Amino acid sequence: MKLLRFGPKGHEKPGLLDADGVIRDLSAHVPDIDGPHLGRDRLTVLAGLDPNRLPAVAADTRLGPCVGRVGKFIGIGLNYSDHAAETGAEVPAEPVVFNKWTSAICGPDDDVILPRGSRKTDWEVELGVVIGKAGRHIDEAEAMDHVAGYCVVNDVSEREYQLERSGTWDKGKGCDTFGPLGPWLVTPDEVADPHQLAMWLEVDGHRYQDGSSRTMVFRIPFLISYLSRFMSLQPGDVISTGTPPGVGMGQQPPVYLKPGQRMRLGIEGLGEQCQSVVADEPG
């Protein structure tokens, strides 16, 4: 299934995308696409519905983040060997873990707002893993049982705030609108191998990122097991698993986002996002 959330910001309704690309309203069957409703039993019930019997939604309806009420938005840094090489960093011995604040989450096609004073806001197409089953100290062999599905994430990052302002990466990773999620949450039955997915990102039609999840260093079962040593993972948590090469910081010379530009990005089988870059307005 391709699950989604549609409607005005803060008032999204649950839905799914049918085989013909029509959005269908799931409101009569589930209150939201969020943690309490991402267990395998609930997903099985939704998968058994006939999409043709669900109300159709207008094609131009806004899509919200594909997961609601996210508890933790966890980022993994330098998790692609070719991306680490382009930044001049060594592949880490253990995963680099950082937070993206949940207030950063927005819809897949919502505007990305440059923070006031930002000079180095960058892009990162990433594979998001959505947790559907709670756990701690999860065995790696059982980790995939905890996955509700996958989605596209744009891990927007302000590099000066992240790398030049001292302290942790978090201040450059969690600005408002720095976490577009979606368009859909794709359940595992539709993703044969999440470690063999083409990933790409364009700015104003120029393709900067053109990679694959196959160059991921720490793979999804290990990441879930590893993170669960340090925190319990809860349904609705999102893990953004790293980016392939082609980020703005890695260009020669570096290239960063400016107001008026458009980002377009996608992952094989998981859909596309498209965001306009806008300046933060005083007020």
TrEMBL record:
Q: Where is the Fumarylacetoacetase-like C-terminal domain?
A: 72-278
Q: Name one GO molecular function term.
A: hydrolase activity
Query: InterPro entries this protein is in?
Result: FAH, Fumarylacetoacetase-like_C, Fumarylacetoacetase_C_sf
Q: Which SUPFAM superfamilies match?
A: FAH
The record's annotation in Gene3D superfamilies points to: Fumarylacetoacetase-like, C-terminal domain
Per UniProt, the keywords (alphabetical) are:
Hydrolase, Metal-binding
The family classification in the record reads: Belongs to the FAH family.
From the Swiss-Prot or TrEMBL record, give the protein name: Fumarylacetoacetate hydrolase family protein
Species name for this entry? Halomonas flagellata
